[in-house]
Specification:
The complex is a heterotetramer of chains A (623), B (196), C (512) and D (99).
Chain A: H1 6-22, H2 28-54, E1 64-74, E2 77-85, H3 87-110, H4 117-136, H5 140-158, H6 165-196, H7 201-211, H8 217-234, H9 242-245, H10 251-260, H11 265-272, H12 274-277, H13 281-302, H14 308-329, H15 332-359, H16 372-375, H17 377-391, H18 397-411, H19 417-442, H20 458-473, H21 478-485, H22 500-523, H23 525-534, H24 536-543, H25 548-594, H26 602-622
Antiparallel strand pairs in A: 1-2
Helix pairs in contact in A: 1-2, 1-4, 2-3, 2-4, 3-4, 3-10, 3-15, 3-20, 4-5, 5-6, 6-8, 8-11, 10-15, 11-14, 11-15, 13-14, 13-19, 14-15, 14-18, 14-19, 15-17, 15-18, 15-20, 15-21, 17-19, 17-20, 18-19, 18-22, 19-22
Chain B: H1 2-10, H2 21-43, H3 47-67, H4 71-96, H5 107-126, H6 141-147, H7 149-159, H8 162-184
Chain C: H1 4-21, H2 30-53, E1 62-70, E2 75-81, H3 83-102, H4 110-129, H5 133-154, H6 159-192, H7 199-203, H8 209-226, H9 235-242, H10 245-270, H11 272-299, H12 303-324, H13 327-358, H14 374-387, H15 394-408, H16 416-442, H17 458-476, H18 479-493
Antiparallel strand pairs in C: 1-2
The chains are: A mainly alpha (623), B mainly alpha (196), C mainly alpha (512), D mainly alpha (99).
Chain lengths: 623, 196, 512, 99
């Protein structure tokens, strides 16, 4: 049955090829349903794989490698395109294809009016293919291939509306940032090959515990380089600036790629390489620190933004920070669990936000919304569920996963009280910005009376409802996830959180955030204005996203361009070119000097002959 | 060279040499005259005088040829050079109206003088290098005296050197054709030449 | 079968001469265009036959044909291919078809233009196939002559300056190489008392250590200028910007590879000790060139100049891979030669098409061509992605193998990591400038004046589609290419030295 | 009077001829200087022919005379042609060789 696994790659790829080659000939909606069917098919095959895994005992579930074809054989180096089926990849694939399928269906409604409808679905299928490749790859090389291909799909989809300048720029930014990550991963692959002589996961991870001792320089370097790729892809500090800009793409893209699946690939990578990361405690601390700092950073910025998608984008960054915190402290399965629940509720939020934008005729500024609960009831309910889940309201999906992360931040192998405290702050922020957004959008009175919001068609609302249901009950899957993934993370143990006090504090933080939002945004504008006035400098800094874009522009973009110009003007034109030309010019000058001899006057020629005769005679006489 | 000067200054002359003292002094005087005449060729400002000096030089050389047992060549020298060639020169001078050349001391002249001086010194020093591969022939002066200069040369020329001789005749033919074409057809410049 | 290589080399050359001698009445070029097309296609078909008949398990020369040329000097006409040159021959024949197909851009003196391109193709093929060093040199110079006239007559801008610089630059290098070729033969003669210019024989000669460096410099200069490696590149931007696009396809795609091919064919097996000593410096120059070209390309606004500088960067990769001096590096370089030949020529074709349509190459003046030209959009995107090294397309495979070789290279020990970092920086830059180019030209909203630009016609699609297909195929299945290269590269790197100097540590070497 | 004298005289005449060719501007005089040089060589050949008991030198001299005669004839014709086209005679002004 595992031999069918190539279908997971093949179906989206076939969808992509069919749609991109003959997209024009498809009737409009058929293309969308076709693409969705391809992803649905991949989801079904993944379910088949899941069933197959369950048919075996937990210890046998690992390392089912399917080789498709030999890709390259070089001196001492050979690569096969092969697929690795194990609980982790199947789990990740379930999220990717499952959520992906829902979003495909949703997109049929959302992109209905777009004139490049089929192209959009072609790209979406390409993305699903690339993500499946990333997840299924059995070695680091194809991991990188998939890694870069999802970057490509992300690029194509962010810049989908090619006539918008901002979209084009955002796409380029995302691509370049991801290329930086790719380079890091490629170098990591070289180092892995240098040390293990292979890029195959199975062999590398088997050899890793004996090849290094903990905090060995090499393993640190490998893990850090892999981390560059992971951070770039998952928009962690300091490579995060592309993610908010990426919201220029269509909303389903934001939901699929920039919330549910692709940006969590970094977490998947760390989880996948847990054998390596367990050998590098320093890196683990770094991951946890960056994760929790990003969580606070993104949460604080998200508190003051006004673009509905950007707020959710910052919350995505923040939540991925939580995931990195989880894997950083050593509880991989909790990180993956949060990845799953996050995929549910964040996709839900994005899709609901898309529904809002759709209903508001492409308006994204929350200051111009308000009172939408009457016009869009389904969206309102689902958005509320998503918000509760995101804020970690008890008994929603987000509550279980996030609570476990916060507790593990203290109690897990690499956890400590600082991580815990920072995580608590981030949790509070999450509650605040989530409900700020919610209140701005749905509560109160409409701020733009001329707008006529309308509920979205059922092709959009049904996926919303499915995701909402998952967001509510997804948390109950927690124990299953731990059990299912435990063969992969054999070495990592879960923390035991029996400190009820800490749990209460965590819940209180989430609720506190929500209550603060209620207090500020529901009860009146006075407090809001007062708070803004009091915290003006901080507010400015937050509103401008800590000026990170400006700093990068000043520190990196300008020098690069300046040096480029300098190289072109000084080094190329005035340096190398000039000196080469000078060689020619000097030769010409010397020749001009010599050419005086060539005067055409017979007597001077005769004189030269005499001189020559004198010279020859000199040789005759003295030699 | 030094030997020669020794002989000259000490009058310690060896009777056994080929030339007697009388002959030697005649050779010496004629040789010096030839040198002086050649100097005259170069130094005279008017071409006609140069031509006359050149005739003198050639006659001197012809006489020296006589002293070196080359009677035939001496005759040819006088007839061809002093006769034909120099007459040609004089005709041309008459035709072109020789102008007196102004004297000037230019860089060219200075360089010429110094290089030629060097050349002369080197030529003299070349005497000290010695014979490279001496060819001692069988045709001694006595043999020539017996046979006669013209006949000896004739035998030699038509036996061993027949090919150069024929080639020389061809050369003369070419020269004849050449001057006819030069004189007959007027020269038309291909394009207007500019002098710089 | 013996005559197949000779056919591949001389079909274009003879056709070129025939075309140039054809009388063209009133600019009616149909006949010469037909002859040229047929000749280039025949060459390509022959090269495909070569590819099919090639025995990929054999490391030595195949399809060897030899007869005496100048018996007095023991110079023979000997041709043959191994795995390295095989792909370059096929690539050149392929690019020749593209160049000839793309060539009819002007009416006047068409026959000379086509003829020169054909001769250029033939010369390049000869370089790749020659097995005699003098023959190699002759073809090497034969490449130069048509390039000189093409740039000088049909170029644009400062064409005389460009072509003069190009020719003098490369001529200096190649004359030094001639000295080197003769020197190698003399060294071989001193050891064995056999005069030969046969390359496989000469390669087995152990060059004496004291002069090896100078001999290496003689060869290296010619190849370094031709590729070009970083400080010797200054002819390239001028020549590329001036050169008409059809010829540029061959010059950038095939001719620049001749330099890299020469490095692999001559320098690596002949002078391993010198390379061991100096490879680090050359590697530094190549790595510097990678970054330098990329960095300048970032600021270019002229499309042709941008592609030209990006070529410097990509050719730097090839040189770096060669001087990694191990299997992966050299194999990656050979693969990258093929890749760059395809990608750069496709990019130049695209630039040519754009220029023909829009009468400008300035990036600031072109916007949003996606709407009028959707087909070009798709192809341009594919080529762009290949050029910036997207995994799954061919550019990545070569770069990955090269960098892997560099990372693991014993020769570049200590600096390999730094070089890889530099190359990584250049890859990031590549994504920046290629996207600048692609997005700047194709995306954003279209300007009024370009609103009714026509999309690619059948002929132009015919030019680009093969390149697009190859980009994908090589990316997905590079094993097909690598398998044929691998034995030959292995042989080159671990060349046995059968002929050693007298008094050397091996007593039985050489014919005394 | 031995070979040294012959050498001396011919070297002197040859040098003077060379000097004349280099310093004089009149093509006619330059020609005469060439004749001087030829004569000097002839003298050397004849003298050494005598000392070495061989007629080869004389034969050579004879050939040289032939060549000289031909050369003078052609040269003078050229000078005449030049004068006809340029109406002046100055070697320094005849510099079309410069191209």
């Amino acid at each position: 049955m595992y031999s069918l696994s190539w279908l997971i790659l093949f179906l989206p790829m076939a969808g992509f090829l069919t749609l991109s080659w003959s997209g024009k000939r498809f009737p409009k909606l058929t293309g969308g349903w076709f693409a969705s069917a391809m992803v649905g098919g991949a989801f079904l095959v993944t379910l088949l794989m899941l069933a197959q895994l369950y048919a075996e005992s937990p210890a046998d579930r690992l390392n089912h490698v399917q080789t498709l074809y030999p890709w390259v054989v070089s001196e001492g180096f050979s690569l096969n395109l092969s697929i690795l089926i194990d609980p982790l990849s199947v789990f990740m694939l379930l999220v990717v294809t499952g959520v992906g399928f829902l979003i495909h269906v949703y997109s049929i409604g959302y992109m209905h009016h777009d004139k490049e409808f089929t192209r959009f679905f072609a790209y979406l299928n390409l993305f699903i293919f690339s993500m499946s490749l990333l997840v299924l790859a059995a070695d680091f090389f194809f991991l990188i291939v998939g890694w870069a291909l999802v970057g490509l799909a992300s690029y194509l989809l962010i810049g989908f509306w090619t006539d918008r300048k901002t979209a084009v720029l955002a796409a380029r930014k995302a691509f370049v940032m991801n290329v930086i990550g790719d380079v890091g991963m490629v170098i990591a692959a070289f180092m892995i090959f240098e040390h293990f002589g292979t890029l195959n996961y199975v062999e590398v991870f088997k050899a890793a515990p004996t090849a290094f001792f903990p905090n060995d320089d090499n393993v640190l370097l490998i893990t850090l380089l892999l981390l560059v790729g992971a951070f770039a892809k998952s928009a962690q500090l300091p490579l995060h600036t592309w993610l908010p800009d990426a919201m220029e793409g269509p909303t389903p893209v934001s939901a699929l790629i920039h919330a549910a699946t692709m940006v969590t690939a970094g977490v998947y990578l760390v989880a996948r390489c847990n054998a390596l990361y367990m050998m590098a405690p320093f890196t683990m601390y770094l991951i946890a620190s960056v994760g929790v700092i990003t969580a606070i950073f993104a949460g604080s910025v998200g508190m003051v933004q006004y673009d509905i998608k950007r707020v959710i984008a910052y919350s995505t960054m923040s939540q991925i920070g939580f995931m990195f915190l989880a894997v950083g402290v050593g509880v991989f399965s909790i990180g993956m669990f949060h990845l799953m629940t996050h995929a549910f509720f964040k996709a839900l939020l994005f899709l609901a936000a898309g529904s809002v934008i759709h209903g508001m005729s492409d308006e994204q500024d929350i200051r111009k919304m308000g009172g939408l609960r009457y016009a869009m009831p389904v969206t309102f309910i689902t958005f509320l569920i998503g918000s509760l889940a995101l804020a970690g309201f008890p008994l929603t999906a987000g509550f279980f996963s996030k609570e476990e992360i916060v507790m593990s931040a203290y109690s897990a192998q690499y956890g400590n009280i600082v991580f815990w405290g920072l995580a608590i702050i981030a949790v509070g922020m999450t509650g605040f910005y989530t409900f700020r957004l919610f209140f701005y959008t749905f509560m109160g009175q409409s701020r733009t009376p001329e707008a006529h919001p309308h509920e979205s068609p059922s092709v959009m609302t049904v996926p919303l409802m499915v995701l909402a249901a998952l967001s509510l009950v997804g948390g109950l899957l927690g124990p299953w996830v731990h059990d299912f993934l435990s063969p992969v993370f054999g070495g990592a143990t879960l923390g035991h959180h029996d400190d009820t006090m800490m749990e209460i504090v965590a819940v209180a933080a989430a609720l506190g955030g929500i209550i603060t939002a209620v207090a500020i945004y529901m009860t009146g504008k006075d407090q809001l204005a007062f708070a803004k006035q009091m915290l003006a400098p901080i507010y400015e800094a937050l509103y401008n996203k800590y000026y990170v874009d400006e700093i990068y522009d000043f520190l990196i973009v300008k020098p690069v361009k300046g040096i480029g110009k300098f190289l072109e003007e000084r080094a190329e034109k005035q340096g190398i070119d000039f000196s080469v030309d000078q060689v020619g010019k000097q030769v010409r000058e010397v020749s001009r000097g010599i050419s005086i001899w060539q005067s055409g006057k017979v007597r001077i020629y005769a004189l030269n002959m005499v001189a020559g005769m004198v010279t020859i005679l000199l040789f005759v006489i003295f030699l | 060279m030094m030997e020669f000067l020794d002989q000259l200054l000490s009058f310690n002359l060896d009777r056994e040499t080929v030339f007697g003292l009388f002959e030697q002094s005649i050779v010496f005087i004629i040789g010096m005259t030839a040198i002086l005449a050649s100097l005259g060729v170069v130094l005279c400002a008017t071409p006609i005088y140069s031509a006359l000096y050149l005739i003198g030089n050639m006659v001197c050389l012809a006489m020296l040829f006589l002293m070196f047992n080359a009677e035939f060549l001496a005759a040819v020298q006088v007839v061809v050079y002093a006769g034909a060639v120099m007459i040609l020169f004089l005709f041309i001078i008459a035709l072109l109206g020789a102008k007196k050349e102004g004297r000037e001391f230019s860089f060219q002249n200075f360089m010429g003088l110094s290089f030629v001086g060097l050349l002369f010194c080197e030529l003299l020093m070349a005497m000290m290098v010695g014979k490279t591969r001496p060819v001692e022939g069988k045709v001694t002066p006595e043999v020539i005296q017996q046979v006669g200069s013209a006949k000896a040369i004739g035998i030699e020329l038509f036996s061993n050197h027949i090919v150069p001789f024929e080639l020389a005749s061809l050369l003369l033919l070419v020269a004849a054709v050449g001057i006819i074409s030069l004189a007959k057809f007027t020269y038309k410049p291909m394009r207007k030449r500019t002098r710089t | 079968m013996n005559y197949i290589l000779t056919g591949i080399i001389f079909v274009p050359i003879i056709a070129g001469i025939v075309v140039m001698l054809t009388k063209v009445v009133r600019n009616n070029n149909e006949k010469v265009i037909r002859i040229s097309n047929v000749a280039s296609v025949v060459t390509f078909v022959l090269s495909l036959v070569l590819l099919v008949a090639f025995d990929s398990h054999h490391h030595g020369m195949q399809f060897v044909q030899s007869f005496e040329w100048i018996p007095l000097l023991h110079i023979n006409y000997t041709v043959g291919v191994d795995g390295i040159s095989l792909w370059l021959v096929v690539l050149t024949a392929f690019l020749g078809v593209l160049a000839i197909y793309f060539a009819p851009i002007q009416k006047k003196y068409m026959q000379y233009f086509l003829g020169l391109i054909l001769i250029l193709e033939g010369g390049t093929l000869g370089v790749f196939a020659a097995m005699d060093s003098i023959l190699f040199y002759v073809f090497w110079e034969l490449m130069l002559i048509p390039a000189y006239f093409i740039i000088g007559f049909w170029g644009e801008g400062n064409k005389v300056y460009a072509t003069t610089k190009f020719v003098i630059y490369t001529l200096v290098g190649s004359l030094l190489m001639l000295v080197g070729i003769i020197w190698v033969t003399m060294v071989h003669y001193e050891m064995t008392h056999v005069v030969t210019f046969d390359i496989p024989t000469l390669l087995q000669t152990q060059m004496p250590g004291d002069v090896q460096f100078y001999m290496f410099v003689l060869f290296f200069m010619a190849f370094a200028v031709k590729i070009p490696i970083f400080p010797f590149h200054s002819w390239l931007p001028h020549a590329y910007i001036s050169c008409p696009i059809p010829a540029l396809i061959l010059i950038t795609g095939a001719m620049s590879k001749a330099g890299a091919y020469g490095l692999i064919r001559f320098c690596l097996p002949l002078f391993p000790e010198t390379i061991a000593n100096w490879g680090l410096w050359i590697g530094s120059a190549a790595a510097g060139g990678i970054v330098y070209g990329a960095w300048i390309a970032v600021t270019q606004r002229d499309l042709k100049a941008l592609v030209a500088y990006s070529s410097i960067s990509h050719l730097g990769f090839i040189a770096l891979g060669i001087f990694a001096f191990n299997g992966q590096g050299v194999e990656g370089s050979v693969l990258q030669m093929v890749n760059h030949g395809i990608i750069a020529s496709a990019l130049f074709i695209i630039v040519g098409i754009l220029e023909k349509r829009l009468r400008t190459r300035n990036l600031d003046q072109i916007r949003g061509l996606k709407q009028p030209m959707p087909v070009l959009y798709a192809m341009f995107m594919l080529i762009t992605l290949a050029a910036l090294g997207l995994p799954g397309l061919n550019g990545f495979v070569g770069e990955f193998l090269i960098l892997m070789g560099v990372w693991g290279s014993h020769l570049l020990e200590g600096m390999g990591g730094l070089f890889v970092l530099a190359a990584g920086l250049a890859i990031v830059y590549a994504s920046i400038y290629m996207l600048f180019m692609f997005q700047g030209v194709m995306q954003e909203s279209v300007e009024k004046k370009f609103d009714d630009v026509k999309d690619l016609d059948r002929k132009e699609m015919g030019l680009l589609i093969p390149a697009c297909i190859l980009v994908v195929i090589i990316g997905l299945y590079p094993k097909g290419v690598i398998d044929r290269v691998s034995p030959a590269v292995d042989h080159v790197i671990h060349m046995e030295k059968k002929v050693k100097p007298f008094g050397g540590d091996s007593g039985h070497g050489g014919g005394h | 009077m031995g070979a040294e004298f012959v050498l001396f005289v011919s070297a002197a005449v040859f040098s003077i001829g060379a000097l004349g060719f280099v310093v004089r501007k009149n093509p006619l005089v330059m020609f005469m200087s060439v004749e001087l040089m030829l004569n000097a060589v002839n003298f050397l050949l004849v003298g050494y022919s005598n000392f070495l008991n061989s007629l080869d030198g004389q034969i050579f001299a004879l050939i040289i005379m032939t060549v000289a005669a031909a050369e003078v004839v052609v040269g003078l014709a050229i000078i005449l042609t030049i004068f006809r086209t340029r109406h002046e005679l100055d070697a320094d002004h005849i510099d079309v060789l410069k191209g």
